[in-house]
Amino acid sequence: MSATQKLQQHPVFVQAQNKAQHYVAQLDKELSKYPVLVRLEQRTQIPKSYAVLGTLVVVGILHTFNPLAAPVSNLVGWAVPAYLSFKALETPSDNDNIQWLTYWVVFGFFNFLESFAIRLVLYYLPWYYVFKTVFIIWLQMPGTRGAQATYFTILKPVLSNINNQNRAVAPTTTSADAHQE
Prior knowledge:
Elements (H helix, E strand, L loop, with lengths): L2 H7 L1 H21 L3 H10 L3 H17 L1 H24 L5 H30 L3 H13 L5 H22 L7 H6 L1
Helix pairs in contact: 4-5, 5-6, 5-7, 6-7, 6-8, 7-8
C-alpha cells in the first residue's frame, strides 16, 4: 500500500473529507435557489458549488496582487448588485427593491469614506481589500440582510442626527436687539 493510499484511509483524512462533502452539499442546496446558477450548472456541467468556490478562490488570488485588489473588490461590489438591482426593478415585489436600494446607499457611503482614508487604512491593514470584499458580499446576501443591518445600526442614526441638526432653526435677532448691544 502506497503512502498516498495510507493517507487517504487515515481516519482524520476520511473525517475531513466527509465534513467537506457535507458543507459542499449544503452550499449546493443553498445555491439551488438561484436560477442563474442552476442554468450555469446545466450549460457547463460544472457543479454550481464548485463554480462559486472556484470564483471565490480566483477573487482571493487576485486580492493577493495589490494593484488588482481595489478593482476586483469594486467589481464584486458593483457587477452582481447592478444585475440584481435591474432584475428587482422588473419584479412587482418591493422587498427586493428595498434590499438593493439599501445596499447601494451603504455601498456608496463606505466607498465615499474610503476615498478619504485609503492610504492610512492600507498602511495599517494591507489586506484591507480582502476584508472589504467579504464585507461587500455580506452586504449583498439577502439571507444576512447585511445592508439593512448596517443601514439601521450605523447610517440611519448618523443621517437622522445630521437631518435633525439642519432642521434646528438658529435664533433670530431683530434689528432692535442688535442696536442694544
